[in-house]
Amino acid sequence: MATDPDAAKLVGLLADDTRLAVVAALALGATDIPSVALATGRSQTEVALAARRLGRGGLVRRDGAALELRRGLFAAAAREAGEHRPPPPPLSDDPAADAVLQAFVRDGRLTSIPTHRGKRLVVLDHLVRVFEPGLRYPEREVNALLAVWHPDTAALRRHLVDEGMLSRAAGVYWRSGGTVEV
């Protein structure tokens, strides 16, 4: 019997249209070569060849014409791939601030606005860095810069003003606080 495939091997097994169709049909309830052929519109010969390759790769169990998708391999491969993922780069030199930022920032976007004021201050200090000190920004531009981070630009704008990180007058905003890198 083949060893369990890792994530890269699974992707390779699914890179062929016929094998992918066979796996899809099995995932949707087909249980043998004739039912997979019917579900996919492929010939029984094509299905048998694909099933043989999937069986050698460890993704499908074959018993004569009966086929069984080893569904658990997808979760196992995903877990294993996640274990080998390098840790995300730090978002702050301060370990405490980095822990807060790692909890609320994913792929360069804010997942939610922290309700705890201390954590919210850490996040706001990180966000306010998109504003250059000394420059004036119309509200539309402030919204555009904040929308990159989170869809609730009004809440972010309000928090930044309330915490003294942005100031506003007559619809124009400017940076008035937060950490400045030198």
From TrEMBL:
InterPro entries the UniProt entry points to: DUF2087
Domain DUF2087: residue ranges: 109-175
Top-level taxon of origin: Bacteria
Protein name: DUF2087 domain-containing protein
Organism per entry: Klenkia sesuvii
Lineage: Bacteria, Bacillati, Actinomycetota, Actinomycetes, Geodermatophilales
